[in-house]
Write a sequence for this structure.
């Protein structure tokens, strides 16, 4: 059942129940009060009538004549005229001596006494009466005296009140139905809009938002819904980009694999199929070895990149000078053989790093500089704005400005031929960027063609570290 | 589709149930109210009378013949208070209705004589009611002393309401209307006689009417702070089926002297009985 229907009918039923229960208590209280009021009024009137009747009896010496009541009819009539009400006079034995008005419904032997007033309410069809009686006593002579008061009009008034109440109930119910229809629609309309918005989002319109200007629970739900939708949209976008990158990665990887494998298979096939002179065999074997080395370098770098995404790397405070000294000691011979000079200096500070990763990063950057056909490499480490900044500058051939934004993507190479010749796979700077991200640092690459490249890496300082910097050549 | 159909059927079912429940509730209310009314309107029982009526009939208690001087003021103040009157049966030392009527008729005949109605053929109507004030409840008086009988006597040519003390049957107040032919109109000197008779009857002994005019008379009792005041409320010609009748409405009451001095009448010196 729809929420609109539930709200509508629940409120109508509660309204009816409340109205009718209240009506019962009000009407029953009203009737009871009316009856009590009429009884009280009848009693006061009875007392007055009783005094009048007794005075008439005393004046007419009725208490002195107790044998032949038949002769006292004129006196009774006089008394009735003075009382001006429906009365019934009984003898001490309960015999009816005189009545004025209709007394067919007089109960037999009503319990009359001089010490109390007896009352009886009578209701027949549309007529209601109050009978009140007691004994009139004088000189040891008693008479029963009863009056009958008509309260029909008051009771009819109560019935008219009840009818009026029922009409009010019906009118209020009709009005309530109309109001509740509108109110239920008003309350459930935002929910319908939310449902439609959710359906559109499910169909792929992630930019859909709810426009609900309200501060109640529905407004809060709309705000939460919009936040959730924004998060979903962002996550889907990130996942899409991630999937796209992975697709590109796989495609590039497949391409990088294909190229050396094609050469390896081609040269191996040639050696296998033909009887080649030794010189050509050696040359073919060299090509196979070279491409194999490239594949090996690619797989090693891919493994490093994969491990970076999977493992936790605890960092510790280490001396920047010691790290650089270690790296320089490792590359000094190779650089000397290639005729590349390297200069380095650093502030003697402690940085919070993983030693192996930072060494890998520095080796990759130096390797890239060498592959860019540089003659000299400068490494300068200093503190800047509370962080450690290390700058690796070379005088190589530089990177075109248009390609700078893609240079850190996996498998991207500015000069593919030159890089492959040196067993490059285009993964080095991707590795450097990932290492910098893991260290919560920043990577900035600045390059000019034919002038050189400057790579600036910013890393967090360890606490309580500060020493004077010194310049040294590896 | 199936769930939509089921939903619609549910809604229709709910609508039908509500359409049945609402009138059913109304009918139920009517039924319950009718049962309630039938029960209320067939009730019977007894209401206790606040007073024991039988004790007033024996008359065995010794009651004083007259109020003490200090009791007069309390009785008058109680009777003149604005509180509503409550009817009740005689109790304790209070005189019975028969005794009150007898006393009232005696007073009536005395004042009738002053108005020239010394002989009449019985009473056309006699009523009597015993009253007390609702809130003051005797105003510090002994039990039963806060009540008073109102005896109404009516004859040919005169009717009066006489206020008698419930225990001593002494006169507290009279309101009378007298009709008489203009040619038999009495002189204003009757006011002084009426006032003197009133004062003597209530045990004041002889007193002197300090002022007597056509508008009334006032008499002081020096030892008490009370005065008997006779006020002529109305004097006019009244036509009864073409016959001219002179109608006088006279009120005779007791008032506190202090309140009287604040009223219209001025009392002059020791005064004499101007009626003599």
């Amino acid at each position: 059942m729809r929420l609109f229907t539930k709200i509508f009918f629940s409120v109508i039923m509660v309204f009816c129940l409340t109205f009718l229960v209240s009506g019962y208590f009000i009407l029953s209280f009203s009737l009871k009060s009316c009856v009590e009021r009429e009884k009280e009024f009848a009693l006061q009137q009875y007392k007055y009538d009783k005094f009048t009747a007794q005075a008439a009896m005393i004046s007419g010496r009725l208490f002195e004549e107790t044998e032949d009541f038949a002769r006292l009819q004129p006196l009774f009539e006089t008394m009735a005229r003075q009382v001006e009400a429906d009365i019934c006079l009984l003898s001490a034995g309960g015999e009816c001596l005189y009545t004025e008005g209709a007394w067919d419904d007089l109960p037999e032997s009503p319990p009359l006494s001089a010490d109390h007033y007896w009352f009886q309410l009578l209701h027949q069809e549309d007529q209601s009466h109050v009978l009140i009686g007691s004994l009139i006593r004088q000189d040891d002579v008693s008479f029963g005296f009863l009056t009958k008061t008509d309260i029909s009009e008051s009771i009819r008034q109560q019935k008219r009140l009840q009818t009026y109440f029922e009409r009010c109930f019906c009118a209020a119910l009709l009005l309530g139905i109309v109001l509740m229809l509108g109110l239920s629609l008003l309350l459930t309309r935002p929910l319908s809009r939310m449902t439609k918005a959710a359906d559109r989002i499910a169909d792929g319109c992630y930019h859909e938002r709810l426009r609900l200007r309200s501060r109640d629970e529905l407004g809060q739900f709309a705000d939460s819904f919009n936040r959730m939708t924004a998060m979903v949209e962002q996550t889907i976008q990130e996942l899409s980009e991630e999937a796209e990158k992975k697709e590109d990665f796989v495609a590039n990887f497949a391409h990088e694999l294909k190229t050396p494998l094609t050469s390896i298979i081609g040269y191996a096939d040639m050696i296998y199929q033909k009887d080649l002179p030794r010189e050509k065999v050696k040359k073919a074997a060299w090509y196979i070895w070279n491409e194999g080395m490239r594949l090996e370098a690619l797989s090693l770098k891919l493994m490093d990149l994969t491990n970076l995404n999977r493992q936790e790397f605890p960092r510790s405070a280490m001396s920047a000078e010691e790290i650089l000294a270690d790296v320089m000691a490792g590359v000094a011979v190779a650089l000397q053989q290639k005729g590349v000079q390297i200069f380095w200096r650093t502030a003697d500070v402690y940085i919070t790093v993983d030693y192996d990763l930072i060494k890998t990063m520095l080796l990759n950057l130096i390797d890239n500089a060498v592959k860019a056909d540089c003659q000299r490499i400068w490494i300068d480490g200093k503190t800047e704005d509370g962080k450690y900044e290390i700058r690796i500058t070379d005088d190589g051939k530089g990177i075109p400005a248009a390609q700078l934004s893609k240079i850190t993507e996996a498998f991207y190479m500015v000069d593919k031929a030159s890089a492959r010749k040196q067993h490059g796979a285009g993964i080095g700077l991707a590795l450097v960027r990932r290492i910098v991200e893991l260290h919560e640092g920043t990577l900035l690459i600045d390059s000019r063609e034919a002038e050189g490249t400057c790579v600036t890496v910013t890393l967090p300082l360890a606490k309580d570290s500060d020493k004077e910097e010194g310049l040294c050549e590896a | 589709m199936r769930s939509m159909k089921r939903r619609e059927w549910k809604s229709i079912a709910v609508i039908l149930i509500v359409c049945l429940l609402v009138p059913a509730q109304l009918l139920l209310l009517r039924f319950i109210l009718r049962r309630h009314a039938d029960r209320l309107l067939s009730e019977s029982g007894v209401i206790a009378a606040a007073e024991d009526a039988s004790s007033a009939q024996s008359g065995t208690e010794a009651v004083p013949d007259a109020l003490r001087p200090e009791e007069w003021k309390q009785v008058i103040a109680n009777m003149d208070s604005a509180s509503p009157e409550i009817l009740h049966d005689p109790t304790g030392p209070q005189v019975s209705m028969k005794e009150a009527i007898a006393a009232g008729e005696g007073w009536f005949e005395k004042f009738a004589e002053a108005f020239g109605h010394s002989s009449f053929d019985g009473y056309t109507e006699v009523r009597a009611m015993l009253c007390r004030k609702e809130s003051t409840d005797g105003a510090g008086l002994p039990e039963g002393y806060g009540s008073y009988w109102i005896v109404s006597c009516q004859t040919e040519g005169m009717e009066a309401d006489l206020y008698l003390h419930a225990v001593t049957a002494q006169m507290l107040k009279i309101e009378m209307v007298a009709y008489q032919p203009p040619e038999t109109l009495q002189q204003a000197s009757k006011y002084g006689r009426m006032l003197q008779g009133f004062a003597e009857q209530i045990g004041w002994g002889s007193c002197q009417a300090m002022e007597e005019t056509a508008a009334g008379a006032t008499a002081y009792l020096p030892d008490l702070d009370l005065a008997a005041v006779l006020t002529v409320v109305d004097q006019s010609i009244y036509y009864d089926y073409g016959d001219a009748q002179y109608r006088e409405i006279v009120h005779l009451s007791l008032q506190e002297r202090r309140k009287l001095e604040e009223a219209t009448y001025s009392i002059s010196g020791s005064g004499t009985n101007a009626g003599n």
